[in-house]
User: Fold this.
Amino acid sequence: MPKDEARAEAKDAPEARNEARGESKTRTIKIGDTDTVAPGEFKHITFKISESSTGRPIQTPILVANSKEPGPALFLVAGIHGNELNGVGAVRELIDQLDLSTMRGALVCLPVVNVPGFLIGSRTLPNGEDINRLFPGNKDGSPGERIADMLLQILSQCDYGITFHTAVDNWFNMVHARCDVSEAENRRLARALGTEVIINEVGLEGMLRRAANDIGIPCVLVEAGEPNAFDRTVIDEVVTCARSAMVDLGMLKGEIKEPIFRVIIKKTEIIRSDHGGIIDMKVVPHQLIYEGDPLFAITNPFGKERDMHKAPFTGMVLGVRTRPIAGPGTPVVLLLKLDKTLSKIEDKLKETWRAKAAEVAVPVVSRPQEPILELEIKSDKRGMDDEEGA
Ligand SMILES: [Zn+2]
Assistant:
């Protein structure tokens, strides 16, 4: 079925929401030319993605958990940027929790894609290539293009995909999802992750999620925390998100993570320092802010304030610079513009807190499940991928 027709059909048939692609299928997953994982098998595979200059193989770990029970195939890919470790931690933990006897479908996990970068704490391959700008790759191309081609061969056997990233160096982003929500199944997967924020963007040329979308595989990026660190809180949140998506796809039994509110938005805005100096940060990621609220001050080494940057609009803090040093033009805070939407979110939060307080006081109180407040903010301006990370 052509992509547009499939999209129109998905929109016309909301009752099909609980049906996942590949739901009634079992399959054998092939890894490269030699390894296969049949239904009922759980295998750790070391897969050769390249060769070092001493002729030794460079291998990446792959885990395939393939249930005898039919269900969708999902890929989880982390460490495509070798210094982005929270996703590595989350996928590792998910693997540890897996029980093939209670799972449906197939899970293909690549916890550390960019092994050479991982070993030296680098986003890119040692030759400077960013694998996540090289998809769909080329089997006769550059070292990075060959790796991208090999990976996509494996991942193209799946029905859905999630890729895990963090912010760029010196930056922290709250956990959120990024995808092209105009595709119904991308939107479904992003919602199922249960994050409060979904950035609606197609993604840059060469990104894995865009290449997956181009061959008809719904794929969502999860952005989580800062690079070069294992952040316990962030990893726990990401594991919960990924498990929630697997529950929604019918692969696991359990609970779907429901956020109190959800914002689907295209536009993000970077607030930059106007002067050089030391950053005195006044906000934290996840914070709701009103126009005119202080965001950060630039001070000199004697503590004297040179400049106070205030919120140019009402919204939410998505990310902050973690290195407290800035020059003129340095990005310092990443905001979502919410305007009137913010008061709706605040009302919803207050309502939830009141409800929670009531539950503590009167434990027998029960009330019907409240629908999630979901707000989609449309704007044509694209986000700023390269500076934010991903
Ligand atoms: Zn990344």
Remarks:
- Residues 3-259 form a domain with the Aminopeptidase fold (CATH 3.40.630.10).
- Residues 51 and 57 are 4 Å apart (CA to CA).
- The radius of gyration is 22 Å.
